[in-house]
Amino acid sequence: MAQLKRTANAVWHGTGKDGDGTLTTQSATLSSVPYSYIARFGDGKGTNPEELIAAAHAGCFSMALAFMLSGAGFTPEEIKADAVLTMEGEGGGWRISAVKLTVRAKIPGIEPGKFQDLAAEAKANCPVSRVLNAEITLDAALA
After folding, report:
1. Contact, 101 vs 57, CB < 8 A?
2. How far does Cα 77 stand from its chain's mean position?
3. A GO molecular function for this record (predicted)?
């Protein structure tokens, strides 16, 4: 069985509300990127875990859809995916409750029904969808 590992590192200083930290990824695409309470729960500068999960989900879904389209004999010109992640307070903590994926794609020669089928399959089977314990909805349309 094939196996793939990716790594990331987080460093935090101070309390949860007043502290701050940095995130670094194996590829160094993120290298000591700041994150903080205000970036997570407000509009402060820096990133946050939920924003990164939304980005990962949009990217994972787009790539999964591209592979499925190619496997079905279609070459996408463009796949634009947005992910809106919802986090809700629950029992004194927080949980990711939902992700809404919206995709608009330019795919020459595909019938709308076939596109809908492949988009639903990509939503169900991309690795990020499979790891999330959240309601995932999809709004897919050809551009």
Report:
1. yes
2. 21
3. peroxidase activity
Q: Is 110 left (phi over 0), alpha (psi -120 to 50) or beta?
A: beta
Cα gap 7→110, rounded to integer Å: 37
Instruction: Tell me the domain boundaries of the chain.
Output: 8-41, 49-142
Q: Using CA atoms, how far apart are residues 116 and 125, in angstroms rounded to an integer?
A: 14
- CA dist 26 → 57, 97, 131 (Å): 18, 28, 20
Dist CA 76 CA 44 (whole Å): 36
Class of domain 49-142: alpha beta
Instruction: Give pLDDT tens digits for 21-61.
Output: 999 999 999 999 999 999 999 988 999 999 999 999 999 99
Pairing mode of beta strands 33-36, 20-25: antiparallel
Cβ count near 53 (within 10 Å): 19
Q: Model's pTM, two decimal places?
A: 0.94
Average pLDDT for 105-126: 98
| pLDDT 10s digits, 66-103 | 999 999 999 999 999 999 999 999 999 999 999 999 99
